[in-house]
Amino acid sequence: MNDSARSFVSAAIPYVNSTPHLGHALELVQADALARYHRGRGRDVRFTTGTDDNSLKNVRAAEREHTTPAELVGRYGGEFRRLADALHVSYDDFLHTASDARHVPAVHELWRRCQAAGDVYRKSYRGLYCVGCEHFLRESELIDGGCPVHPGPLEVVEEENWFFRLSRYESAILEAIDSDRLRISPKERKREVCRFIEGGLTDFSISRSRARAGGWGIPVPGDESQIVYVWFDALASYLSNLGFPNGTDYERYWPSALEREHVIGKDIVRFHALYWPAILLSAGLPLPTSLRVHGHITRDGEKLGKSRGNAIDPWQLAERYGVDGLRYYLLGQLHTTKDSDFKEDLLRAAYSSELAGKLGNLLQRVTTLCVRHGVSGVLTLPLGPREASLADVAREAARAVDAGLEAFAFQDALRAVFEFVTAANRYADESAPWRLAKLRENAPPLKRAPLDTALHASLAALIESLRVSALLLRPFLPTTSNAILNRLGYADTETNATFGGASGEPKPRLGDVLFPPLERR
Question: Which positions are annotated as active-site residues?
Answer without folding.
Answer: 21, 24, 130, 133, 147, 150, 303, 306
